[in-house]
Design brief:
45% of the residues lie in helices and 14% in strands. The chain is of the alpha+beta class. Among the domains are: 135 residues, no CATH class; 207 residues, Alpha-Beta Complex (Transposase Inhibitor Protein From Tn5, Chain A, domain 1), CATH 3.90.350.10. The strands form 2 sheets. The protein has a 9-stranded mixed beta sheet, with helices on both faces. Strand 8 and strand 9 form a beta hairpin. This is Transposase. GO terms for molecular function: DNA binding; transposase activity. InterPro entries: RNaseH-like_sf, Transpos_IS4, Transposase_11.
Length: 492
């Protein structure tokens, strides 16, 4: 009995692992510390190898081990060694976001395959423990890792990928659908034009995306209904992530006085299209060229969302430049025509369309258009996991482009994702020189996936394939189901 009790105590002690750096006064406890650090180090390496995060001569690691270790200590703290420890759960979660299947059962199957390949006992195929592990995973850990990847990519991107050495940020918003549950409806209500029980909860996502690397620099989401929930309100919460010298490209929805004034206050330049309700008269203001002038926008009355102190800082007159190129009127804070010509402004604004392609890649290629989680807390984690996976794919594209001396924007996102999924399991289970060889082949293959150059491409905003001729659901599903059952009982 005494030996069995000691054996149980020993097994219980082995599964307790503390991530944060701990100093041991008792020399007898040092072996357990070394064991914990060794297991953690192996887990860190496996997580980075899974996404091809191997440093090259041009690009360092976007998630170094010290950064991962620090974020684990800050967000997770102490944890037990289970079937699904935090980093393993996060790797499966991000892999689930990248996978075309996207089901929890698929993630569990990959965990079983991984354990059996390493000679460990196979875990249960029940997805319940994995779902509970995802719930324990802190949102801050996923979000900070995604932002860290985006920041490191922007800092490490070569000067040739930028405009005169300045970072260009693309700004846009989109909507995301999710399962129709009571919890999701309370946090993200459905559209007001739909009847209760017939619509789906909607979230508004606003993102800042780097033009040079395609990575998401920052994002925020909120409901599509209610006060202070629009794109501009969400963008104002992201302005602190912009640095002096940045350039923001946005559509005409952001063409207003306060957006331009707040950006100028931060030392950020703006290029946008003229709002359709604003009248442009090139006979007024200071003439800079043909259909190119400098005008002053008058400060409007203080809006309800702005406090009096911030409103007092706003200038009574804001100088902006309005120029027309090829029938399109653009508004910018670049006031000197000798420093930046009208044609250069037009060429920069034409690259704004890249954000539409990026959002399509996030929503269509990664399946974030329709989320799977059934609670708002897991919705936020699922969005963060998808954007972390997207940034890791962009890191692979940037590393491959730097090695091949091409622009990262010329490479195919979908092709990179397909290659990563093909190499993922081998990278995670490999070690040493084998991993470096596979990573080199992976980067070489990605660098050959260059997109064709199609200048002036025009496509109709329409689809050719007709949808199936099914009637629309006009009542809640449970009522429709009861109606069918009642009709069967009546006919029988």
């Amino acid at each position: 009995m005494i030996k069995e009790t000691k054996a149980r105590w020993l097994r219980a002690s082995l599964v307790k692992i503390v991530v944060s750096e701990i100093t041991f006064d008792n020399k007898e406890d040092q072996p357990w510390s070394m064991l914990a650090k060794k297991r953690l180090q192996q887990e860190l390496e496996r997580f980075r190898r899974q996404f091809g995060d191997q440093p090259t001569q041009a690009f360092g690691a976007v998630l170094p081990n010290d950064v991962l270790r620090t974020l684990l200590a800050e967000e997770v703290g102490a944890f037990r060694e289970r079937i699904y420890p935090p980093l393993t759960t996060l790797g499966l979660f991000v892999g689930q976001a990248l996978s075309p299947d996207g089901a929890c059962q698929d993630a569990v199957a990959r965990r079983v395959s991984e354990r059996t390949a390493r000679g460990q006992a196979a875990c249960s195929l029940n997805s319940g423990p994995y779902c509970k592990a995802r719930q324990r995973l802190p949102l801050g850990l996923i979000r900070k890792l995604a932002l860290c990847v985006g920041q490191k990519l922007e800092q490490a991107s070569p000067r040739a990928w930028k405009w005169r050495g300045r970072s260009i940020t693309l700004l846009d918003g989109t909507t995301i659908s999710m399962p129709d549950t009571v919890q999701n409806q309370s946090a993200y209500p459905q559209s007001g034009v739909q009847k209760p029980g017939l619509g789906f909860p909607l979230a508004m996502l606003v993102a800042l995306i780097s033009l040079s690397t395609g990575a998401v620099r920052s994002w925020t989401q909120g409901p599509c209904r209610g006060k202070h929930t629009g794109e501009q309100a969400l963008f104002r919460t992201l302005m602190t992530n912009l640095s002096p010298g940045d350039i923001v490209l946005a559509d005409r929805y952001y063409c207003n006085y306060f957006t331009a004034a707040l950006l100028v206050e931060r030392g950020v330049d703006l290029i946008t299209r003229q709002h359709q309700r604003r009248i442009t008269d090139f006979r007024r203001g200071q003439r800079l060229g043909r259909r190119d002038h400098r005008v002053d926008w008058i400060r409007p009355q203080r809006p309800g969302w702005m406090d009096p102190e911030t409103y007092a800082r706003m200038p009574e007159r804001l100088a902006v430049r309005e120029t027309e190129v090829a029938g399109c009127v653009l508004v910018t804070t670049f006031l000197d025509p000798e420093a930046v010509s009208a044609l250069e402004i037009d060429a920069l604004y034409r690259r704004r369309w890249q954000v539409e392609v990026d959002l399509r890649s996030i929503k269509a290629e990664m399946g974030m258009d329709i989320l799977r989680a059934k609670s708002p807390a897991m919705i936020d984690k699922e969005i963060a996991a998808c954007l972390l996976g997207y940034n890791l794919v962009c890191a692979l594209m940037s590393r491959a482009a730097a090695v091949a001396h091409v622009l990262a924007r010329t490479l195919s996102f979908k092709g990179t994702l397909q290659l990563l999924l093909a190499f993922e399991q081998q990278l995670r289970s490999g070690a040493g020189a084998g991993v470096r060889t596979m990573t080199a082949h992976l980067l070489g293959a990605i660098s050959m996936l260059q997109l064709p150059i199609r200048p002036g491409r025009v496509e109709p905003h329409a689809i050719k394939r007709r949808p199936k001729n099914h009637p629309l659901l006009t009542v809640p599903r449970d009522i429709a189901r009861a109606t069918i059952l009642n009709s069967r009982c009546t006919t029988s």
